[in-house]
Design brief:
With about 325 residues, the protein is an alpha/beta fold. It has one domain: TIM Barrel (Alpha-Beta Barrel), CATH 3.20.20. The chain has 17 helices and eight strands. Helix 8 links the parallel strand 3 (about 135-140) and strand 4.
């Protein structure tokens, strides 16, 4: 269960994987887009996952209905604003919203820089309206390759001061992290933090590469880290955070079921593992579900769930003063 005396944080949340079903339908009908259905309930099975998929890339296919409605910059601004509104409705105190501007721009040939600017506008408006603290994480989508990733990075760097960190996501199996070393060097030069999707599809070596070559401070998913004892020790000793996404990992068949997830092992080993939503619009869950349903199903005790919540504050891409501010705000509420 969520400890209401502590700040509640979601550190691994794809903005472009969290478009409301109602918004997809509204935009689809408004812009006469080729949606597969014309009512919410008929649309739901096309967008949301109820049963485990064959793999990560099958799960990612669901994104097409979310980015497919991003016809202009106003729609990008709208979904960013709605992400913040939804975070507020869940009682989230701080959220890191990550997205790939090229991926969001592609369906309707938008300018990726314009996407970043629109998302920033929507997030800032949401912060003002709802009082949720938000940071942005830019994503480089592996499957576009190295050259497109340079263009995507340039779009993110055009709003350098609005971005907190850089991430690498997408098809980990076919697009290896070694191709993106130069990109992440530029991100570090810009003063950004680094988090990398690794060990979700591939084994421990992918995580080692993210740490050693991309200089990752946090790892997204990292489920295969438990196969390497030395890596587990390294993660714990070097305070490298792990962004766990329980329901997502079950739905992508990355793990067999909740109880098979390594989150409990991470926590028992002193790894700074956390609970997050990943793509809640596809998974049809929210952060409270992960704490109240998924975490107990994964075998976590009440104390371990609380530790995961505390870990999130420790590894958040915030200064110590900002973290203390979240704690003070929570105590006043």
């Amino acid at each position: 269960m969520v400890d209401t005396s502590l700040p509640l944080l979601d550190l691994h949340h794809h903005l472009d994987g969290s478009v409301r079903l109602e918004t997809i339908l509204d935009l689809g009908l408004k812009h006469n887009l080729p949606l597969p259905a014309k009512t919410l309930e008929e649309l739901r099975p096309y967008v949301q996952v109820s049963d485990p998929q064959a793999g990560v890339m099958d799960f990612i296919e669901k994104f097409k209905w979310m980015v497919g409605v991003l016809v202009d910059y106003d729609t990008c601004r709208r979904i960013a604003f709605e992400n913040v509104e939804d975070a507020a409705s869940q009682g989230i105190d701080y959220i890191e919203l990550r997205y790939s501007p090229w991926f969001m721009a592609e369906a309707h040939a938008l300018n990726p820089q314009g996407v970043v600017e629109a998302v920033t506008d929507g997030i800032r408006a949401g912060e003002r309206e709802f009082g949720v603290r938000v940071n942005q994480i830019g994503i480089l989508s592996r499957h576009y390759g190295s050259e497109i990733a340079h263009q995507e990075l340039s779009a993110l760097l055009s709003c350098k001061n609005e971005i907190t960190a850089l991430d690498l996501a997408g098809d980990e199996g076919n697009y290896r992290g070694e191709w993106f070393v130069d990109h992440f060097a530029k991100a570090r030069e810009a003063g950004w933090h680094i988090t990398v999707h690794a060990g979700e599809i591939m084994g421990p070596q992918s995580i080692w590469q993210a740490i050693r070559e991309l200089k990752a401070e946090r790892i997204g998913h990292a489920v295969h880290a438990v196969e390497d004892a030395a890596l587990m020790t390294y993660l714990a000793e070097h305070h490298i955070g792990v962004e766990c996404c329980l329901t997502s990992n079950v739905q992508t068949s990355t793990v067999r079921d909740y109880l098979s997830h390594p989150l409990r092992t991470f926590l028992e080993s002193g790894v700074l593992a956390t609970l997050n939503t990943d793509d809640p619009g596809i998974s049809a869950i929210d952060l409270n579900y992960e704490y109240e349903v998924a975490a107990p199903a994964a075998g976590l005790t009440v104390d371990q769930i609380k530790q995961a919540q505390k870990n999130a504050l420790e590894i958040a891409f915030l200064s110590q003063d900002e973290k203390q501010g979240l704690i003070a705000k929570k105590q006043r509420s």
